[in-house]
Amino acid sequence: MNGEIILVILIVVGLIGRSPIITTAACLLLVMKLVHLERYLPSMERRGLEFGLLFLTIGVLVPFAQEKVVLRDITNTLTTWPGIVALAGGAIATYMNGKGLAMLKIDPQMIVGLVLGSILGIVFLRGIPVGPLMAAGITAFLLKVTQWIADKLS
């Protein structure tokens, strides 16, 4: 019963915060629990992130398929400072995702804080959840910075 209560709370938080993604996700999970489809939850947990990233990547790549972005646009972009900075940003983001994954393997309980922090970011900062790996990567970075500061102060 505890899971259902938490899902209802998440639905209410999503409605109050006008976050249809949180509301819809919590509703779908609640329906699955209420109609006794819990046996599919481990598969959703295991593959949900992959499917979410797949659809996110498809959404980002649609302009290429629609030929709104052509090879000339790509070369022009990558020869400008914003394009080079974007390239560096993508590389740094994937590096941080890897560090986040490593942190979650060492300390999987961190996912609770990451999920709650993501919900707060969605509801109060109007953010968009793109996955726990980036949140974990940023957390790993912040933990390193706070450890470095603590070492300097002691």
UniProtKB/TrEMBL annotation:
<dbReference type="Pfam" id="PF04284">
    <property type="entry name" value="DUF441"/>
</dbReference>
<keyword id="KW-1003">Cell membrane</keyword>
<keyword id="KW-1133">Transmembrane helix</keyword>
<feature type="transmembrane region" description="Helical">
    <location>
        <begin position="6"/>
        <end position="36"/>
    </location>
</feature>
<comment type="similarity">
    <text>Belongs to the UPF0756 family.</text>
</comment>
<feature type="transmembrane region" description="Helical">
    <location>
        <begin position="78"/>
        <end position="98"/>
    </location>
</feature>
<keyword id="KW-0472">Membrane</keyword>
<feature type="transmembrane region" description="Helical">
    <location>
        <begin position="110"/>
        <end position="127"/>
    </location>
</feature>
<keyword id="KW-0812">Transmembrane</keyword>
<protein>
    <recommendedName>
        <fullName>UPF0756 membrane protein ACE41H_16595</fullName>
    </recommendedName>
</protein>
<dbReference type="InterPro" id="IPR007382">
    <property type="entry name" value="UPF0756_TM"/>
</dbReference>
<feature type="transmembrane region" description="Helical">
    <location>
        <begin position="48"/>
        <end position="66"/>
    </location>
</feature>
